[in-house]
Please model this.
Amino acid sequence: MIVVAAGSATRFGGEKLLADIGGKPLISHTIEAVSAVSDTVVVVARSDLVQPFKDLGHDIIVTKGGQTRTDSELAGLAALGREYDLIGIHDGARPLVKASLMERLFEKADEVGGAAPTLEPERLLVDSLSLRPIVNAVTVQTPQVFRGPGLLAAYVKAAQTAVVAHDSVEVVQRFGDLDIALVEGDRENIKVTFQADLEMVRSRLEAASHNEPQ
Model:
C-alpha cells in the first residue's frame, strides 16, 4: 500500500498528520490500519516530514513526495523497488479505513483489474457552469487498488505528459487499460481536511481504543 501524505494541509491550518490522537500521531493510525492487510507500506511525505515519519518506528518505507499528488504517487510507486501483483493507494489523512473494506478492494481488483470505494453523495451536486443537477454522481474514496503491472504502466505514460490527476482512478482511466469496479465505500472512512474532521476521527479512534479488551 502506498500512503500519500505529502500535501500542504493549508485548509486544515496546521500539521494534521502529526496531530495527537490517543497518544500517537494521526499518520500512525493510518499506517497501522493499512499494515494489517499489506505486505509492504510506502509513505510518501513532504520533505520536512520524511525524517519525522521515519522516527515513528513503523516498519515502512518513507520517501519524499512531489509537487502534485500525481508526482507523489509516482514517487511511491518508484520506492516500492519491485513489482507487486496488487497495489493500493491511500490517503494518509484517512486513519479510519477498515480491514474489511481493504480486503474487498484487493479481492475485486484481483478479479477485474482495479477497484475504488464510492458513496452516494449526501447532498445534491450542481454543475458550476450550467447550474444543473449532476445525476448519477458518486463520491470516490481511497484506498484505490489495482493490478500492479497495469498501474505502473499507466503511471509511466502519465509521467510522459506531466498530467496532474485528481486520483489514481483518473490516471488509470486516462492512461491505462484496466477495468475498474466500484465497491461500496464506508462513511466512517473520513478524510481529515478540516479541524472538525479531526475531532470526529479522534472521537471514533479514542472510543474504539476504550472498547478494546484489556
The chain has a mean pLDDT of 92. The first strand starts at residue 2 and ends at 5. The longest helix spans residues 195-211. The chain is about 35% helix and 20% strand.
